[in-house]
Specification:
mainly beta; Maltoporin, Chain A; 6-stranded mixed β-sheet; 9 helices; about 5% helix; signal
């Protein structure tokens, strides 16, 4: 095939997670083929661009014992926030996500061979599940840490991950890998085989990978064996759920209308009384009725996974065929099948009923703390300090009872996902004269079925509760106060399995042309231009009982919708200066993309970059650009559904029921990005190089929810003052009789986010003692991450949260690699600076308001037995560092988004090549 010839490229070694500076030259040739680097569609002679790019090679991936690319990418220092991984049991859906800069996985664009990957996972997925990409077929990964919407379109706000698959491969490459934790659980085995061959005018590569990952339980680690509570300056295991084994009974504290504090009120808004309970902990049914204490709380940890199991099958096919000397046909095909599971504590159910004679007299001897109305005016009496006056009262027939129960009688909840993802690309590329062109069609589809078993049809259950009718006859068959009734054969008819279906589909037609335009004094200018048409749709159909709200939660609505977009872009590379004093080379790059969405209309985004190579040792670079992220189908058309979120409010439960959902009026997010840095390779220090880059990303019109705690504080704590606010009216905050806070919090274009910091990479390669040595140090310094979704902005730099991960001010990876003729060894230290708990910012009584700095040590090696066989092995988290506890933690008493919850992990493998 015809190739444009250029001059010489600079050779440089590339250790793990190093910043790309150059590529190795073929010393046998005087000319080099132009290549395309992530962040630009213009092919060029080297990889020195204005944007910072990090390269991860296939050997780096093997050295980490990785069978999924997420476990490699998530260790990069430029990542943060809530990255879904196998340690996320609650809400993960078995997915794996990458989150550059901590700005959210939806703001990181994932490409495969420079083209979009289909969004995948369960439901109407809005991000790429990295499980769909087989590690065995990866040749390299290029991570662009810069906004690139002008080049790639939507989602490229925080950066781009471009996964490059093996092509033009010949022979057979087979791997067998195994791993397990130091506790003997979370066993993992993986097998893959790649075969490729060439013929007269083409090449075909086929790959297969199968991975089987086992689980670990929260009960099997000391730090997670029970939910920890803080009391009296100490920690204890009483942090479990009030929805307890054996049932939890409250005298219903609400009659008629309620105010914002959950109090029953008359038509004038005055708190009323009729024997209503106040600040009463209720009764426990476990072991016989008795006053409920913290010891009765349910320990849900033993029923929850610490590390989630999964089986995965990946099939890949890549082929190319030279139709003529100037035209090549190509195709890519990937298919993945994932079976994943999570396990959580038995379902908590809750409902109300009237205490009836038919239920027996077990409650008549029990008491509760009641408001009183001694003057008979129908309004609860208060003392001189304005506090309610209470007295002990007995339960009586006719009382309204609220009943909550942890359904340990029927076992834990099992979450299962079966996910199919297929992607096919077909196209042609070639040359017309000196101009390169390509056309392609990219189709992707994701289909999922997720099941949730051991649920209970509470609607059917409450319909069968026994009561005495007006004729004195007993109707109904179920007595909730009878413990035996909960394990009867008749009760099991209320158990069901929820089955939901969802998926997404992508179709892209694209065409482009690139080449040189005209000669300038410093060299030839170049361009790339193209057009794309993209169609996306997604859907989610909840189980029929769930859709009706009969699963004890509010109803979940379906999702269905789509959009199409037409786009056109042009990019230029202009050499301004060359071979003059203090300017060996100065290049200007520019790009602009125009787009027209069916959902919100037209707009454009642009990029300007400057590369100034002062001399052979020093290069300066900078990029300014605008970026955007269009709302996804899920964000636009997602039906309302309940989400249970951690909040704090005196006298209320710590988990609020929040209604979340999409908004068809959403507009795109808009961003301004800036990177500026230098590349330094001193001639006086052979083998050493340094890159230092500053980044600044500002997002406006951010698609987000209002902070849940802010809604509670604004609309409950200051209810009288703020009841007229639009925020409080749309949230419609209430408290039910159990102290559960309930409100709405749908997506809106109300936020702004700004993050800035520095990326520093040092590397040094040398020879000593007859061995080859490579060292690198990657460090990210987070200067600020300011989020404003309300009137009060929050800087998350240096904070760790209860649900969106951590934002360490310093993250650093040190790598030392040494190799001989037939072996190599690698040591890596991963450092995460200590953080302050976001939940403790306004408190002075937290037991653990900060986390300590954490360093993980990994060790690996390989030995070449002969030309065909190589053995590998290693251990991650060598010293079995346990994740830290902090007040306001997320799950497992820590943050599995940020820390390793599995502990020491051993891995080994054998590679066979022919």
């Amino acid at each position: 095939m015809k190739k444009t010839q250029l001059g010489l490229a600079v050779a440089a070694a590339l250790p793990m997670f190093s910043s790309v500076q150059a590529i190795a030259a073929d010393s046998s040739a005087e000319a080099i083929e132009k290549i395309q680097v992530t962040g630009s569609r213009i092919k060029r002679a080297d990889m020195e661009t204005a944007s910072p790019v990090t390269l991860i090679g296939a050997d780096d991936i093997k050295a980490m014992g990785a069978t999924s690319i997420d476990s490699v990418l998530q260790k990069m220092t430029a990542t943060g926030g809530a990255m879904t991984n196998p340690g996320i049991n609650n809400g993960s859906g078995g997915n794996a996500r990458i989150d550059l800069r901590g700005l959210g996985a939806q703001r990181t664009l994932v490409l495969v061979n420079g083209r979009r990957m289909i969004n995948s996972g369960t439901g109407a997925a809005s991000t790429v599940d990295l499980n769909t990409i087989p590690v065995s077929m990866i040749k390299s990964v290029e991570v662009l840490k810069d906004g690139a919407s002008a080049v790639y379109g939507t989602d490229a706000v925080a950066g781009v991950v471009n996964i490059i698959l093996k092509d033009n491969f010949e022979g057979l490459d087979m791997n067998l890998n195994t791993a397990m934790s130091g506790e003997g659980d979370a066993e993992e085995s993986s097998f893959d085989i790649t075969v490729g061959g060439s013929f007269d005018r083409g090449n075909v590569v086929i790959g297969l990978q199968y991975t089987d990952r086992g689980e670990a339980s929260q009960a099997d680690r000391e730090f997670s064996k029970c939910p920890i509570a803080e009391a009296g300056g100490e920690l204890n295991c009483n942090g479990g759920s009030v929805y307890a084994q054996g049932g939890h009974i409250w005298q219903d504290g609400v009659i008629g209308d309620v105010n914002k504090k959950g109090e029953s009120v008359d038509e004038d808004g005055n708190p009323i009384t009729s024997g209503l309970a106040l600040n009463d902990s209720g009764l426990s049914g476990m072991g016989g009725l008795h006053p409920f204490t913290d010891a009765d709380r349910y320990n849900f940890a033993p029923d929850s996974y610490l590390y989630t199991p999964m089986e995965r099958l990946n099939l890949t096919g890549i082929a190319n065929y030279e139709l003529t000397d100037d035209t090549r046909l190509f195709t890519e095909f990937t298919y993945s099948k994932r079976w994943s599971q999570q396990q959580m504590a038995p379902q908590p159910i809750w409902f109300g009923f009237k205490y009836d004679e038919a239920m027996g007299d077990s409650l008549l001897s029990q008491t509760y703390n009641s408001k009183v109305d001694r003057d008979g005016d129908g309004i609860a009496d208060r003392d001189a300090d304005g506090e309610y006056i209470t007295e002990t009262a007995n339960y009586a027939y006719g009382d309204q009872i609220f009943y909550g129960r942890r359904m340990s009688d029927t076992g834990p909840r099992f979450f299962e996902q079966s996910v199919d993802t297929v992607r096919a690309v077909i196209g042609a590329e070639g040359f017309v004269g000196d101009y390169a062109w390509d056309v392609s069609a990219n189709f992707g589809r994701n289909d999922s079925v997720d099941k949730l078993s051991n649920l209970h049809n509470v609607g059917s259950l409450t319909d069968s509760i026994m009561f005495t009718n007006d004729e004195g006859q007993v109707e109904g068959t179920f007595n909730p106060l009878d413990q035996a009734a909960w394990t009867s054969e008749d009760f099991r008819k209320n158990i069901y399995t929820e089955v939901n279906n969802g998926g997404s589909q992508l179709f892209i037609l694209s065409a482009s042309v690139s080449g040189e335009m005209f000669e300038m004094p410093a060299g030839y200018s170049a361009f790339a231009a193209g057009v794309e048409r993209r169609q996306e749709k997604a859907w989610y159909t909840p189980d029929s009982l769930t859709a009706q709200g009969l699963a004890n939660d509010p109803a979940v609505e379906p999702t269905s919708g789509g959009f199409d977009v037409n786009e056109a872009y042009v990019e230029f590379a202009l050499p301004l200066l060359a071979d003059v004093p203090f300017a060996e080379m100065v290049d200007l790059s520019a790009a602009i993309r125009a787009f027209d969405y069916s959902t919100f209309g037209s707009d454009e985004t642009w990029k300007l970059g400057l590369t100034w190579k002062v001399n052979e040792e020093l290069m300066l670079r900078s990029v300014v650009s605008t970026a955007f992220r269009a709302p996804t189908v899920d964000e636009l058309y997602s039906g309302n559904s309940p989400s249970f979120e951690q909040v704090e409010f005196p006298g209320a439960q710590d988990q609020a029921e929040v209604t979340v959902g999409g908004n068809q009026e959403l507009m795109p997010e808009e961003a301004d990005t800036l990177t500026a840095g230098l590349v330094y390779e001193p001639s006086w220090f052979e083998g050493f190089s340094m890159t230092l880059d500053y980044y600044d990303i500002e997002i406006e019109n951010a698609i987000t929810e209002v902070d849940n705690q802010y809604i509670v504080d604004t609309c409950l704590e200051d209810a009288d003052k703020n009841s007229g606010l639009a925020l409080c009216q749309s949230a419609n905050v209430t408290i039910d009789s159990t102290g559960r806070i309930i409100f709405n919090n749908q997506l809106q274009n109300i936020g702004s986010e700004q993050t800035s910091g520095y990326d520093l990479n040092l590397k040094y390669t040398f020879e000593a003692a007859g061995l080859n040595w490579r060292t690198s140090l990657d460090t990210t310094f987070l200067d600020e991450y300011i989020v404003q979704a309300t009137e009060e902005p929050v800087d998350y730099a240096g904070l760790i949260t209860s649900g969106t991960g951590g934002y360490a001010e310093i993250k650093s990876n040190f790598t030392l690699n040494v190799s001989g003729d037939n072996w190599d060894m690698q040591y890596q230290a991963r450092y995460i600076a200590g953080m302050d708990s976001f939940s403790c910012l306004e408190k002075d009584d937290c037991y653990a308001p900060t986390t300590p700095s954490v360093t993980y040590h990994d060790l690996s090696g390989s030995y070449i037995v002969n030309d065909a066989v190589t053995l590998t092995g290693g251990v991650n988290n060598l010293f079995d560092k346990q994740p830290p506890y902090y007040s306001g933690n997320n799950d497992s008493n820590t943050d599995p988004y940020t820390y390793d919850v599995l502990g020491r992990r051993f891995f080994a493998g054998v590679n066979v090549k022919f």
